[in-house]
Amino acid sequence: MQTSDTFSGLVCTETGDEYDADVTGTSAADAPLDPTYDLDAVEWDAATLAERPFDTMWRYRELLPFSDPVTANEGATPLVEASALGDEVSVGSLYIKDEGRNPTGTVLDRGFSLAVTAAREAGTELVAHASPGNGAQSAASYAGLIDVRSYGFVPSRTPFPNKAMVNVHGGQMKVIGGRYPAALSALHEKLKSDWYTLQEFDNPYRHEGAKTIAYEIAERLDLSVPDWVVVPAATGELLYGLSKGFRDLTDLGLVDDVPRLVAAQSVGCSPIATAWEAGNDATEAWNHPDTIVGELEIPDPAGGTLALRALDATNGVAVSVSDDDALQSAVTAAQTAGVEVGPAGGVALAATWELADEFAEDDTVVVVNTESGTKNADILRSHLMGQGI
Prior knowledge:
Layout: E1 7-12, E2 18-19, E3 33-37, H1 46-50, E4 79-81, H2 83-88, E5 93-98, H3 108-121, E6 126-130, H4 134-145, E7 149-155, H5 160-168, E8 172-176, H6 180-190, E9 196-197, H7 206-220, E10 228-232, H8 237-251, E11 260-266, H9 271-278, H10 304-313, E12 317-321, H11 323-337, H12 343-354, E13 364-369, H13 377-386
Parallel strand pairs: 5-13, 6-7, 6-9, 7-8, 10-11, 10-13, 11-12
Antiparallel strand pairs: 1-2, 1-3, 4-5
């Protein structure tokens, strides 16, 4: 593999055992693998970073594993100040980190840039994974950049824009009746030895893209960190990646502390929040997932344990909210902050309202919007119609 000079390899997140860079799947301890780096060889400071164009996440190349990435200029998304929303929850500043501005309109572009680069380095001819929808679209886009076949297994309830764009990007799609677990089961049944997995945590590089959000937030705040970062929680990759990114910054001496992370989930599918509230160190599969927020309907998150560790390491909390509150929050953000927030981002915003009493008046809060609202415009519009609008 053409790896970066500072990349050290993969380690087991449970035992710390080392693995080669081309390994996929979990470790011998059945735990996810994690990329590691020689931090002593990373020379970052405000001046060094300021000299680089703020145009892609690959400006942080020393803490990314590949020297020749497959990229569509993902990352470098705006941190939008939402003053009206901040006033409603009585905090000093509230920002929306708008990941809907990525190439295919989702935060997942960051991870698929890395995962598909790993696939190219492995010389694969076909990549495959299951997703609620956004991932299939993103994977098809990045696979098209290296001219390999992409199979996305998606549930039948996947939004039409995702399904359409999978084909537009040249990908192939297997629509499976039922919900996300059915799509994941279908993938496992069809998976062949020559198919390269892009599945979160089976591919050890996807969550690595999420940590660059932490770098960008800190840079946009003049190399400081907010008091809170509120994250829609699905597979656990975003929570764990952000925690790792902020930890990198403290280890490099660029910031003094890490923000408190908030895992935001829907009450209809909240395995991470439920485990956190119970004081458990692992998630349990959600028996009857039922939320309109399809991207967060992950009943048995592969990174559930890592997400709980991220909350513990950052003195974080977990919150579950109703679908109605999530959709209303997304609409409010569009109307007051000019950001087209998707239902998943609406879950994070609704969680922010839930936590209003926990915030101090001078706190800085960042809410991560993980997808463009245009992907689920019909759901948001239906919410308004239900109010007679």
